[in-house]
Amino acid sequence: MTRIAIYGGTFDPIHMGHLEVAKAVIEEKAADRLFFMPNYISPFKQGEIHSSGEDRINMINIAIRDLPSIEASDYEIKRKSPSYTIDTLEAFERKFSHDICFVAGADSIDSMEEWHRGPELLSKFKIIAVKRVGFPIEKLIEKIAYYKKKFNSDIILLKKIPKYISSSAIRDNLILKDDISEYLTAEVRDYILKNDLYKNNLNKCKLEIIKKLNDPNNINKNKRKYNNFLIDENLKYKLEKLLTKKRYIHSLGVANMAKRLARIYGIDEDKAYFSGYIHDMAKCLSVEESNRYVRYYGIDYKYINNIQIAHSKVGAKFAEDELGVEDIDIINAISYHTTARAEMSLLEEILYVSDAIEINRKYNEVERLRKEAEIDLDKICLFILDFCIEDLNKKNKEIDRDTIHAREWILKKIKRRNNE
Protein backbone atom coordinates (compact mmCIF):
# COMPACT_ATOMS: atom_id res chain seq x y z
CA MET A 1 0.00 0.00 0.00
CA THR A 2 1.24 3.48 -0.87
CA ARG A 3 2.43 5.49 2.11
CA ILE A 4 1.59 9.19 2.02
CA ALA A 5 3.41 11.67 4.28
CA ILE A 6 1.85 14.97 5.31
CA TYR A 7 4.38 17.71 6.10
CA GLY A 8 2.52 20.58 7.73
CA GLY A 9 3.65 24.07 8.59
CA THR A 10 3.32 27.71 7.67
CA PHE A 11 6.02 27.55 4.95
CA ASP A 12 6.26 31.31 4.82
CA PRO A 13 8.46 31.03 2.90
CA ILE A 14 9.43 27.46 2.06
CA HIS A 15 13.22 27.20 2.49
CA MET A 16 16.12 24.78 1.98
CA GLY A 17 15.59 23.17 5.39
CA HIS A 18 12.02 22.23 4.44
CA LEU A 19 13.20 20.80 1.13
CA GLU A 20 15.94 18.76 2.82
CA VAL A 21 13.35 17.14 5.08
CA ALA A 22 10.97 16.35 2.21
CA LYS A 23 13.72 14.80 0.08
CA ALA A 24 14.97 12.75 3.04
CA VAL A 25 11.48 11.30 3.62
CA ILE A 26 11.41 9.98 0.05
CA GLU A 27 15.10 8.99 -0.20
CA GLU A 28 15.06 7.10 3.12
CA LYS A 29 11.82 5.38 2.02
CA ALA A 30 9.86 6.59 5.02
CA ALA A 31 7.00 7.33 2.58
CA ASP A 32 6.27 6.99 -1.15
CA ARG A 33 4.64 10.40 -1.62
CA LEU A 34 4.86 13.61 0.38
CA PHE A 35 2.46 16.54 0.52
CA PHE A 36 3.54 19.95 1.75
CA MET A 37 0.51 21.15 3.71
CA PRO A 38 0.61 24.91 4.44
CA ASN A 39 -1.72 26.01 7.25
CA TYR A 40 -4.55 28.43 6.82
CA ILE A 41 -4.14 29.67 10.41
CA SER A 42 -2.34 27.46 12.88
CA PRO A 43 -3.93 27.32 16.36
CA PHE A 44 -0.56 28.49 17.70
CA LYS A 45 -0.22 31.46 15.32
CA GLN A 46 -3.60 33.13 15.28
CA GLY A 47 -3.25 36.88 15.04
CA GLU A 48 0.13 36.83 13.26
CA ILE A 49 0.63 38.30 9.79
CA HIS A 50 1.56 35.90 7.00
CA SER A 51 1.63 35.77 3.22
CA SER A 52 -1.57 34.75 1.48
CA GLY A 53 -2.33 31.07 1.05
CA GLU A 54 -2.03 31.54 -2.70
CA ASP A 55 1.49 32.99 -2.39
CA ARG A 56 2.66 30.18 -0.10
CA ILE A 57 1.25 27.48 -2.41
CA ASN A 58 2.89 29.20 -5.38
CA MET A 59 6.28 29.29 -3.60
CA ILE A 60 6.01 25.60 -2.68
CA ASN A 61 5.13 24.60 -6.24
CA ILE A 62 8.08 26.62 -7.55
CA ALA A 63 10.46 25.01 -5.05
CA ILE A 64 9.38 21.40 -5.71
CA ARG A 65 9.03 21.68 -9.49
CA ASP A 66 11.82 19.17 -10.16
CA LEU A 67 11.30 16.92 -7.13
CA PRO A 68 9.48 13.66 -7.95
CA SER A 69 6.93 12.25 -5.47
CA ILE A 70 6.66 15.61 -3.68
CA GLU A 71 3.49 17.69 -4.07
CA ALA A 72 1.67 20.63 -2.53
CA SER A 73 -1.83 20.58 -1.07
CA ASP A 74 -4.08 23.56 -0.40
CA TYR A 75 -6.51 21.45 1.67
CA GLU A 76 -6.00 23.34 4.95
CA ILE A 77 -5.87 26.74 3.26
CA LYS A 78 -9.22 26.10 1.58
CA ARG A 79 -10.80 25.09 4.88
CA LYS A 80 -10.35 28.66 6.15
CA SER A 81 -10.42 27.56 9.77
CA PRO A 82 -7.84 26.62 12.42
CA SER A 83 -5.83 23.61 11.31
CA TYR A 84 -5.58 20.65 13.64
CA THR A 85 -3.20 17.94 12.48
CA ILE A 86 -5.36 14.92 13.27
CA ASP A 87 -8.35 16.34 11.36
CA THR A 88 -6.20 16.72 8.25
CA LEU A 89 -4.71 13.24 8.56
CA GLU A 90 -8.13 11.67 8.93
CA ALA A 91 -9.42 13.56 5.87
CA PHE A 92 -6.50 12.29 3.77
CA GLU A 93 -7.04 8.78 5.08
CA ARG A 94 -10.64 8.90 3.86
CA LYS A 95 -9.65 10.44 0.52
CA PHE A 96 -6.77 8.14 -0.44
CA SER A 97 -7.40 4.93 1.54
CA HIS A 98 -3.63 4.68 2.00
CA ASP A 99 -1.31 4.64 4.99
CA ILE A 100 -1.02 8.25 6.14
CA CYS A 101 2.10 9.47 7.97
CA PHE A 102 2.89 12.76 9.62
CA VAL A 103 6.28 14.51 9.45
CA ALA A 104 7.22 16.29 12.69
CA GLY A 105 10.36 18.00 14.02
CA ALA A 106 11.95 17.06 17.32
CA ASP A 107 10.49 20.06 19.14
CA SER A 108 6.99 19.17 17.89
CA ILE A 109 7.46 15.53 18.88
CA ASP A 110 8.41 16.67 22.36
CA SER A 111 5.00 18.27 22.98
CA MET A 112 2.75 16.16 20.73
CA GLU A 113 0.96 14.41 23.57
CA GLU A 114 -0.48 17.82 24.54
CA TRP A 115 -1.79 18.61 21.04
CA HIS A 116 -5.48 18.53 20.09
CA ARG A 117 -6.39 14.82 20.38
CA GLY A 118 -2.66 14.20 20.81
CA PRO A 119 -2.84 10.68 22.31
CA GLU A 120 -5.18 9.62 19.49
CA LEU A 121 -2.81 11.09 16.90
CA LEU A 122 0.13 9.21 18.41
CA SER A 123 -1.69 5.89 18.52
CA LYS A 124 -3.47 6.06 15.16
CA PHE A 125 -0.95 7.48 12.68
CA LYS A 126 2.65 6.76 11.82
CA ILE A 127 5.00 9.61 12.72
CA ILE A 128 8.19 10.48 10.83
CA ALA A 129 10.45 12.24 13.32
CA VAL A 130 13.03 14.78 12.15
CA LYS A 131 16.16 15.60 14.17
CA ARG A 132 16.78 19.28 14.89
CA VAL A 133 20.08 21.08 15.27
CA GLY A 134 20.45 21.94 18.95
CA PHE A 135 17.74 19.56 20.17
CA PRO A 136 19.38 16.75 22.23
CA ILE A 137 19.10 13.49 20.30
CA GLU A 138 18.99 11.55 23.59
CA LYS A 139 15.91 13.50 24.65
CA LEU A 140 14.21 12.81 21.31
CA ILE A 141 14.97 9.07 21.46
CA GLU A 142 13.70 8.95 25.03
CA LYS A 143 10.45 10.70 24.04
CA ILE A 144 9.93 8.33 21.10
CA ALA A 145 10.41 5.33 23.40
CA TYR A 146 7.93 6.84 25.86
CA TYR A 147 5.28 7.28 23.14
CA LYS A 148 5.82 3.76 21.83
CA LYS A 149 5.33 2.33 25.30
CA LYS A 150 2.36 4.50 26.31
CA PHE A 151 0.47 4.78 23.00
CA ASN A 152 1.97 1.93 20.94
CA SER A 153 3.10 4.67 18.53
CA ASP A 154 4.69 3.84 15.20
CA ILE A 155 7.51 6.40 14.99
CA ILE A 156 10.57 6.27 12.75
CA LEU A 157 13.51 8.64 12.99
CA LEU A 158 15.03 10.07 9.81
CA LYS A 159 18.80 9.82 9.50
CA LYS A 160 19.06 13.24 7.88
CA ILE A 161 19.62 16.25 10.13
CA PRO A 162 18.43 19.27 8.11
CA LYS A 163 20.15 22.62 8.34
CA TYR A 164 18.44 24.88 10.88
CA ILE A 165 16.79 27.78 9.09
CA SER A 166 14.16 30.14 10.48
CA SER A 167 11.42 31.39 8.16
CA SER A 168 10.84 34.39 10.41
CA ALA A 169 14.56 35.24 10.23
CA ILE A 170 14.38 35.07 6.42
CA ARG A 171 11.45 37.49 6.44
CA ASP A 172 13.33 39.82 8.79
CA ASN A 173 16.51 39.67 6.70
CA LEU A 174 14.59 40.45 3.53
CA ILE A 175 13.29 43.63 5.15
CA LEU A 176 16.82 44.57 6.19
CA LYS A 177 18.05 43.70 2.67
CA ASP A 178 20.48 41.05 3.95
CA ASP A 179 21.64 38.20 1.69
CA ILE A 180 19.33 35.18 2.02
CA SER A 181 20.49 33.26 -1.07
CA GLU A 182 21.76 30.26 0.91
CA TYR A 183 18.34 29.75 2.54
CA LEU A 184 16.03 29.83 -0.50
CA THR A 185 16.02 28.54 -4.05
CA ALA A 186 16.71 31.31 -6.54
CA GLU A 187 13.21 30.92 -7.98
CA VAL A 188 11.50 31.34 -4.59
CA ARG A 189 13.67 34.35 -3.79
CA ASP A 190 12.76 35.93 -7.13
CA TYR A 191 9.05 35.28 -6.49
CA ILE A 192 9.28 37.01 -3.09
CA LEU A 193 11.04 40.05 -4.52
CA LYS A 194 8.78 40.27 -7.56
CA ASN A 195 5.63 40.17 -5.43
CA ASP A 196 7.08 42.39 -2.67
CA LEU A 197 6.21 39.91 0.09
CA TYR A 198 6.95 40.61 3.77
CA LYS A 199 7.34 44.37 3.24
CA ASN A 200 5.14 45.17 6.24
CA ASN A 201 5.51 41.91 8.12
CA LEU A 202 7.48 43.14 11.15
CA ASN A 203 5.95 45.13 13.90
CA LYS A 204 7.78 48.31 14.85
CA CYS A 205 9.01 46.99 18.18
CA LYS A 206 10.61 43.87 16.67
CA LEU A 207 12.23 45.92 13.91
CA GLU A 208 13.89 48.08 16.56
CA ILE A 209 15.26 44.93 18.21
CA ILE A 210 16.69 43.71 14.90
CA LYS A 211 18.28 47.09 14.19
CA LYS A 212 19.87 47.11 17.61
CA LEU A 213 21.24 43.59 17.25
CA ASN A 214 22.62 44.23 13.77
CA ASP A 215 23.88 47.77 14.25
CA PRO A 216 24.58 49.05 17.79
CA ASN A 217 24.87 52.58 16.39
CA ASN A 218 21.40 52.49 14.84
CA ILE A 219 19.32 52.73 18.01
CA ASN A 220 16.28 54.95 18.12
CA LYS A 221 17.58 57.89 20.14
CA ASN A 222 14.09 58.70 21.38
CA LYS A 223 13.56 55.21 22.76
CA ARG A 224 12.74 55.30 26.46
CA LYS A 225 15.46 53.88 28.73
CA TYR A 226 14.12 52.60 32.02
CA ASN A 227 17.25 52.92 34.12
CA ASN A 228 15.80 55.31 36.70
CA PHE A 229 13.16 52.65 37.56
CA LEU A 230 10.27 54.98 36.79
CA ILE A 231 6.88 53.34 36.12
CA ASP A 232 5.38 55.80 33.64
CA GLU A 233 2.20 55.57 31.55
CA ASN A 234 4.13 54.27 28.56
CA LEU A 235 5.48 51.28 30.50
CA LYS A 236 2.12 50.66 32.17
CA TYR A 237 0.49 50.58 28.73
CA LYS A 238 3.09 48.13 27.40
CA LEU A 239 2.67 45.76 30.33
CA GLU A 240 -1.12 45.84 30.28
CA LYS A 241 -1.02 44.94 26.57
CA LEU A 242 1.42 42.08 27.14
CA LEU A 243 -0.27 40.49 30.16
CA THR A 244 -3.66 39.15 31.17
CA LYS A 245 -5.42 41.03 33.95
CA LYS A 246 -4.62 38.24 36.43
CA ARG A 247 -0.93 38.23 35.50
CA TYR A 248 -0.75 42.03 35.70
CA ILE A 249 -2.22 41.93 39.21
CA HIS A 250 0.35 39.26 40.14
CA SER A 251 3.14 41.50 38.82
CA LEU A 252 1.93 44.37 41.00
CA GLY A 253 1.93 42.01 43.98
CA VAL A 254 5.49 40.88 43.27
CA ALA A 255 6.60 44.50 42.84
CA ASN A 256 5.14 45.52 46.21
CA MET A 257 6.60 42.51 48.02
CA ALA A 258 10.02 43.08 46.43
CA LYS A 259 9.95 46.72 47.50
CA ARG A 260 9.05 45.72 51.09
CA LEU A 261 11.88 43.18 51.29
CA ALA A 262 14.32 45.62 49.67
CA ARG A 263 13.56 48.14 52.42
CA ILE A 264 14.24 45.50 55.10
CA TYR A 265 17.46 44.21 53.53
CA GLY A 266 18.86 47.58 52.55
CA ILE A 267 18.82 47.72 48.76
CA ASP A 268 17.22 50.18 46.34
CA GLU A 269 13.44 49.93 46.82
CA ASP A 270 12.55 51.52 43.47
CA LYS A 271 14.86 49.13 41.64
CA ALA A 272 13.30 46.15 43.40
CA TYR A 273 9.76 47.38 42.67
CA PHE A 274 10.63 47.95 39.01
CA SER A 275 12.13 44.44 38.70
CA GLY A 276 9.01 42.87 40.17
CA TYR A 277 6.74 44.97 37.98
CA ILE A 278 8.31 43.80 34.69
CA HIS A 279 9.51 40.31 35.69
CA ASP A 280 6.72 38.45 33.84
CA MET A 281 6.75 40.48 30.60
CA ALA A 282 6.93 37.32 28.46
CA LYS A 283 4.68 35.11 30.60
CA CYS A 284 1.61 35.38 28.37
CA LEU A 285 3.26 34.52 25.06
CA SER A 286 1.88 31.46 23.28
CA VAL A 287 4.14 28.41 23.07
CA GLU A 288 4.86 29.17 19.42
CA GLU A 289 5.69 32.82 20.12
CA SER A 290 7.95 31.79 23.00
CA ASN A 291 9.74 29.24 20.82
CA ARG A 292 10.30 31.85 18.13
CA TYR A 293 11.91 34.25 20.57
CA VAL A 294 14.03 31.46 22.13
CA ARG A 295 15.43 30.75 18.66
CA TYR A 296 15.66 34.43 17.73
CA TYR A 297 17.69 35.37 20.80
CA GLY A 298 19.85 32.23 20.70
CA ILE A 299 18.59 31.06 24.12
CA ASP A 300 19.39 27.46 25.12
CA TYR A 301 17.32 25.04 23.03
CA LYS A 302 16.15 23.22 26.18
CA TYR A 303 13.66 26.06 26.67
CA ILE A 304 11.80 25.18 23.46
CA ASN A 305 8.24 24.15 24.45
CA ASN A 306 9.10 25.09 28.06
CA ILE A 307 7.36 28.42 28.54
CA GLN A 308 7.33 27.95 32.31
CA ILE A 309 11.06 28.73 32.36
CA ALA A 310 11.52 30.27 28.90
CA HIS A 311 9.37 33.27 29.83
CA SER A 312 12.00 34.43 32.32
CA LYS A 313 14.81 34.20 29.74
CA VAL A 314 12.77 35.88 26.99
CA GLY A 315 11.47 38.46 29.48
CA ALA A 316 15.03 39.45 30.35
CA LYS A 317 15.71 40.03 26.64
CA PHE A 318 12.50 42.05 26.31
CA ALA A 319 13.62 44.24 29.22
CA GLU A 320 16.89 44.94 27.42
CA ASP A 321 15.65 45.33 23.86
CA GLU A 322 12.15 46.72 24.21
CA LEU A 323 12.56 48.81 27.35
CA GLY A 324 16.24 49.69 27.08
CA VAL A 325 17.07 48.35 30.57
CA GLU A 326 20.86 48.26 31.01
CA ASP A 327 21.15 47.34 34.71
CA ILE A 328 22.63 43.81 34.69
CA ASP A 329 21.30 43.09 38.19
CA ILE A 330 17.73 43.63 36.97
CA ILE A 331 18.34 41.56 33.83
CA ASN A 332 19.69 38.66 35.91
CA ALA A 333 16.88 38.94 38.46
CA ILE A 334 14.29 38.57 35.69
CA SER A 335 16.23 35.82 33.92
CA TYR A 336 16.47 33.62 37.03
CA HIS A 337 13.25 34.48 38.86
CA THR A 338 11.78 31.07 37.98
CA THR A 339 14.75 28.76 38.56
CA ALA A 340 17.03 30.78 40.86
CA ARG A 341 20.77 30.11 40.48
CA ALA A 342 24.00 29.86 42.45
CA GLU A 343 25.63 33.14 43.52
CA MET A 344 22.42 35.15 43.34
CA SER A 345 22.59 38.83 44.15
CA LEU A 346 20.36 40.12 46.92
CA LEU A 347 17.98 41.57 44.31
CA GLU A 348 17.79 38.20 42.54
CA GLU A 349 17.00 36.41 45.78
CA ILE A 350 14.38 39.00 46.74
CA LEU A 351 12.62 38.70 43.37
CA TYR A 352 12.72 34.89 43.50
CA VAL A 353 11.13 34.87 46.96
CA SER A 354 8.68 37.69 46.20
CA ASP A 355 7.33 35.79 43.20
CA ALA A 356 6.34 32.94 45.53
CA ILE A 357 4.90 34.88 48.47
CA GLU A 358 3.29 38.02 47.01
CA ILE A 359 -0.07 39.02 48.47
CA ASN A 360 -2.18 37.28 45.79
CA ARG A 361 -0.65 33.85 46.44
CA LYS A 362 -3.01 31.54 48.33
CA TYR A 363 -1.63 28.36 49.92
CA ASN A 364 -1.28 26.98 53.44
CA GLU A 365 2.25 28.13 54.25
CA VAL A 366 2.22 31.53 52.60
CA GLU A 367 1.40 33.71 55.64
CA ARG A 368 4.21 32.14 57.66
CA LEU A 369 6.63 32.51 54.74
CA ARG A 370 5.82 36.21 54.36
CA LYS A 371 6.61 36.85 58.02
CA GLU A 372 9.76 34.75 58.09
CA ALA A 373 11.06 36.25 54.82
CA GLU A 374 11.42 39.54 56.69
CA ILE A 375 13.68 37.80 59.22
CA ASP A 376 15.65 35.22 57.23
CA LEU A 377 15.50 35.58 53.44
CA ASP A 378 17.93 32.70 52.83
CA LYS A 379 15.84 30.28 54.87
CA ILE A 380 12.69 31.06 52.89
CA CYS A 381 14.61 30.89 49.62
CA LEU A 382 15.74 27.37 50.58
CA PHE A 383 12.19 26.41 51.55
CA ILE A 384 10.85 27.52 48.15
CA LEU A 385 13.65 25.72 46.30
CA ASP A 386 12.95 22.51 48.22
CA PHE A 387 9.23 22.81 47.55
CA CYS A 388 9.78 23.34 43.81
CA ILE A 389 12.20 20.42 43.52
CA GLU A 390 9.84 18.10 45.40
CA ASP A 391 6.89 19.21 43.26
CA LEU A 392 8.81 18.63 40.01
CA ASN A 393 9.90 15.19 41.21
CA LYS A 394 6.29 14.26 42.00
CA LYS A 395 5.24 15.31 38.52
CA ASN A 396 8.22 13.45 37.01
CA LYS A 397 9.40 16.68 35.37
CA GLU A 398 12.97 17.67 34.66
CA ILE A 399 14.60 19.95 37.23
CA ASP A 400 16.60 22.78 35.72
CA ARG A 401 20.27 22.56 36.65
CA ASP A 402 20.23 26.19 37.81
CA THR A 403 17.70 25.21 40.48
CA ILE A 404 19.91 22.35 41.68
CA HIS A 405 22.94 24.64 41.83
CA ALA A 406 20.90 27.33 43.61
CA ARG A 407 19.91 24.91 46.36
CA GLU A 408 23.51 23.72 46.84
CA TRP A 409 24.67 27.34 47.01
CA ILE A 410 22.01 28.53 49.47
CA LEU A 411 22.68 25.54 51.75
CA LYS A 412 26.39 26.36 51.87
CA LYS A 413 25.56 30.03 52.43
CA ILE A 414 23.34 29.22 55.41
CA LYS A 415 25.85 26.78 56.92
CA ARG A 416 28.68 29.28 56.49
CA ARG A 417 26.59 32.02 58.10
CA ASN A 418 25.62 29.77 61.03
CA ASN A 419 29.28 28.87 61.66
CA GLU A 420 30.41 32.48 61.81
What is the compact description of this entry?
It contains 20 helices and 6 strands. With 420 residues, the protein is of the alpha/beta class.
Give the topology, please:
Blueprint: E1 3-9, H1 16-27, E2 33-38, H2 53-63, E3 70-72, H3 75-79, H4 85-96, E4 99-105, H5 106-111, H6 118-124, E5 126-130, H7 137-151, E6 155-157, H8 167-175, H9 186-194, H10 204-214, H11 233-242, H12 245-265, H13 269-278, H14 287-296, H15 307-321, H16 328-335, H17 346-357, H18 366-373, H19 377-394, H20 401-419
Parallel strand pairs: 1-2, 1-4, 2-3, 4-5, 5-6
Helix pairs in contact: 2-9, 12-13, 12-17, 13-16, 14-15, 15-16, 16-17, 17-19, 19-20
Describe this structure in words.
By secondary structure, the chain is α/β, with parallel strands linked by helices. The protein folds into two domains: 3-194, HUPs (Rossmann fold, 3-Layer(aba) Sandwich), CATH 3.40.50.620; 233-419, Hypothetical protein af1432 (Orthogonal Bundle). 54% of the residues lie in helices and 7% in strands. Strands 3-2-1-4-5-6 form a six-stranded parallel β-sheet, sandwiched between helices. The termini are far apart. Residues 42-48 and 202-224 have low confidence and may be disordered.
Q: Which term fits the overall shape?
A: elongated
Task: Report the mean per-residue pLDDT as an integer.
Answer: 85
Biggest β-sheet: strands ordered side by side in the sheet = 3-2-1-4-5-6
Helix and strand sequence: EHEHEHHEHHEHEHHHHHHHHHHHHH
Q: Can you say what the CATH homologous superfamily of the largest domain is?
A: HUPs
What is the structural class? Answer: alpha/beta
Contiguous low-pLDDT stretches (5 residues minimum) are 42-48, 202-224
Instruction: Indicate the radius of gyration in whole angstroms.
Output: 24 Å
**Strand portion:** 5-15%
Question: What's the CATH class label of the largest domain?
Answer: Alpha Beta
Give the biggest beta sheet.
6 strands, parallel
- At the fold tier of CATH, the topology name of the largest domain is Rossmann fold
Q: Number of DSSP helices?
A: 20
Q: What is the CA–CA distance across the termini?
A: 76 Å
Helix content: 40-55%
Can you tell me the CATH architecture of the largest domain?
3-Layer(aba) Sandwich
Count the domains: 2
The total strand number stands at: 6
